[in-house]
Amino acid sequence: MSTWIILVISLVTFLGNQPTFSQEEQPFRKFYAGIELGAGGLELSRNQLNEGRTARFALGIYGGYRPFRWLRAGINLNGWLIEPYNQFFFFYFEEEGISISNIYGQVQVFPLRERPLFLNFQGGSSKYVNLNPDAQNAQGTGGKIGLGYEYPLGKNLGLSLTANWGFGSFRDVTLQNISFTNQRYDVFEVLLGITYR
Question: Architecture of 23-148+167-196 per CATH?
Answer without folding.
Answer: Beta Barrel (2.40)
